[in-house]
Amino acid sequence: MTLDLQKAFDLIIALLPETILSVWAMVLLLFAAWTHKDPRAQRQTGWLSLIGIAAAIGATAWLWAAGARVEGLPGSVAVDGFRWAVDLIVLLGTGLVVLLSLDYLDREEIRIPEYHVLVLFAAVGMMLLAGGEDLFVVFLGLELMSISVYVLAGINRKSAASAEAALKYFLLGAFASAFLLYGIALLYGATGSTRLSLIGFQIGSLGLASHPLVLAGLALVLIGFAFKVAAVPFHMWTPDVYDGAPTPITAFMSASVKAAAFAALVRILLRAVPQLHASWDVVIWWLAAITMVVGNLVALAQRPLKRMLAYSSIAHAGYLLTALVGGSMAGAAAFLYYLLFYTVMTVGAFAVLVFKGRDGERDVLVEDLAGLGETHPWLALVMTICMLSLLGFPGTAGFIGKWYILTAATGAGYAVLAAVLVLTSVVSAGYYLPIIMAMYMKPRLHAEVHAGVSVPAVMRGVLAALAIALVLFGVWPNLPMEAARAGSHAFVPDRVVPISPRMIPR
How many domains does the chain fold into? Predict the structure, then answer.
């Protein structure tokens, strides 16, 4: 299916998933306004939001299966497999977070039906961010996502920690957005365009690879995205925000928000500034190495599980950055594969914390999981599989994902960085394995320690499906890897729409 993005109808088709989700979110906003006094309204809004997510997934799958591509001048949004793959990952994470939130909100007595509307708007922002072919669309998606998540982080008005998390995230996020916006301005000043393909053309044709404005603009853009993906040294907000935010929103930020930000960064690096590879490659190398080392070492000292998983997410940001080093198609495919299963195992781990948590937002310590394997064996099994996959244990999807990243890094000549990934993964066993040991090898602190743990039947099925997927695709990775390779073809040079001087807007 060929689309001409200069035509309104074709543009609507290209933006069909985002359009469906946006319209549905506005419908639910009206529904929430009309029924906000009904105690059942929040749960109803949650279930209805899943319909919109399912419709957006269907639209995305249809566009990908139909082979949608751009004809003529590239538009402001990308129409390629990479965008569809990331959209599906984002929507998967969003749907899982909505399911996690249904009982969590009731338990915590958070009566705000607009909660699910904000989740949908955040997802729309993530999809625009991942699919933006123009830096202004990227910025629009980033702000729509960020504003929604700022509110969601502080949605529990009874919790001082939640309010503190939202304030910290807002203030630091505003600084990061300012860096990004200044970077966009500098790139526009140097190249005369905000369109990624045109920026790349101008840099190549006019020899701007060493231009100070281009280098400064790229540096500021990298700083902005380094904040969003929680790369060291721009990670300081992460532990406090993850710890204070409602646990489902923590999972949302750790999985979907990070996925969208990483996708936008990949597109900018490989589409707009491939000529500057020698410059940004060094920066990404050091960011990846430092992020992996700091994230894993600091996680060793954490006892609250939310903070431990926060530093774990920082470490995994380093793993994903490793896939970007070299700017290869193999790296892009490994990135998509790992991103998919990182979302699955992260949401799965946070889901256990959601159902284990009680007494408000009390920290769940590693010791609090003692005896969970005896009282709730299937829930302990899900947590075990997620921990082993995050560790990269053979037989799990996490191992296969790290293997593909290692292969891409060594193939691009970055054996030292690959060695850092291996060594830091070994270090991570120091905080993943004690969780498993506590569940199966330590006695319960008291007889009623897990008495309040209750998991709805729907979530039991969902968690079982996630655990099975992590094991199944850990021994049979062909299907998701082929999809990841198909998505990475968006950056193959002969698939990129050629740019000529006459196509540049005057």
Answer: 1
